[in-house]
Amino acid sequence: MNMSTNLNKSSSTILGVGSYLPSRVVDNSELSKRVETSDEWITSRTGIKERRVAEKNEATSDLAVKASQKALDDAGISPEDIDLIVVATITPDMAFPSTACLLQHKLGIPKVASFDIEAACSGFLYALDIADGMLSSGRYKCALVVGAEKLSSIMDWEDRTTCVLFGDGAGAAVISSSGEGPQLIGFNSGADGSNPKLLHQPAGGSLEPASMESLENRGHFLKMNGREIFKSAVRVMGSAARELLAENGFSNKDIDHVIPHQANARIVESLSQRLEIPLDKFFCNLDKYGNTSAASIPVAFDEARKASIFKKGELGLFVAFGAGLTWSAVLARF
Ligand code: ACO
After folding, report:
1. pTM above 0.85?
2. Cα Rg for the chain, rounded, in angstroms?
């Protein structure tokens, strides 16, 4: 696979971060009453102990609003200061209008450019990459970047191979071309669309619109080839991170913290071995939330920051993979 993709340098500052997780906790023992599984199987294969599930009347934009309000507070700015909104999600409130537009209205942000991007679990880092590029142009000054998912809405609760893995949540960051805070240093985002069925939601789009047949075939739920995704995940995240480090004149020894996509503890362990970065430098909270796709990295980043894990001047690596396949690695100086 040719990994030479979209390496670039950045100078945006992260002014604030926030996250929101729905209050309802679904633990492994509750799931084992729904499908044939066990806490032992889920924990040993994934590291996940529990996940959050949003209420029926709680949409992705509602989760995004709560995370965004916290990010704005953390940044010490008001909604009027935002001049760009980018939301990463594969579970928008509806096909259109975008969740970003709904979020703009709900937060009372002025009529600024607002759009969604879809890069699955790499979505938040893709959105950071895009927003950073727009800030670098000088035409935008302060962006709200959000990763938000209600994955429970596309879960097949009868499929034990997927429903144990995912959860709902949202994370947000305010980034700016000026101000104090962690500096984004560089990005490496890429994709390989040669095998889309590794992880997909087959029905509901233009290829297979909703029909009685698509409902009967359970085509509106997420489908995944877990074993193949596992192998690809470790490979593409490893290559993306190594390329980014080399491009920016760093080695694996320079990394103080890794905030990986929170999919599976075994993937994180394999990545640690591949990158030769000790596991204790990887921040993980997937035991509590499972895989929240685009929300996973900003939620983990927010928790790690609140736990005062990062010291000023340390170097952080964010790295993710997702359906597409997509991948993205981002470097930040805290
Ligand atoms: N409980 C009990 N048994 C199960 C369960 C379950 N929840 N799920 C599967 N099994 C069974 C399978 O049916 C299989 O049984 P069989 O041998 O009789 O056929 C057996 O367990 C082993 O299944 P495998 O798929 O080989 O299990 P594996 O060790 O590969 O673990 C897993 C599966 C956890 C899904 C792993 O492959 C994985 O984590 N893959 C990556 C998934 C991922 O990260 N996806 C997110 C992508 S990011 C995004 O964009 C959303």
Report:
1. yes
2. 19
